[in-house]
User: Fold this.
Amino acid sequence: MPCAPGRVLVVDDSQVIRQLIRINLELDGFEVMTAADGAACLEAVHDFRPDVITLDLAMPRLDGSRTVDRLRLDPRTVWIPLVVVSASAGGALAVPVGVDAVVAKPFEPSDLVGLVRTLCAEGRPASRTLAP
Assistant:
């Protein structure tokens, strides 16, 4: 059962991916804010106060790995579940420590929505991975 209201911060440098994730989460009742990179995520996270953050690894200005590090070092954000949504997941880039789940691109939107729903309801779990 999803938390009410669920808030998700979607961080990806691709506008198409941000919109795809946003629309699918909003159709499931989530309130969604988007950011184009890690720096914008860090600017928005304290005002928006998301229940879950999805983020890509390869982004300009501040990549996903450094964003995860900063979120995990901040006592105000250490509790937020983080989902890496990336074509790089498991490939050339290592998934950073502190990530709660990994979704490899391309992905099935309904699988991502279900994972976000679970994380929103249960909080930070042991790491989970969804393969394409």
In short: DSSP finds four helices and six strands in the chain. The mean pLDDT is 87.
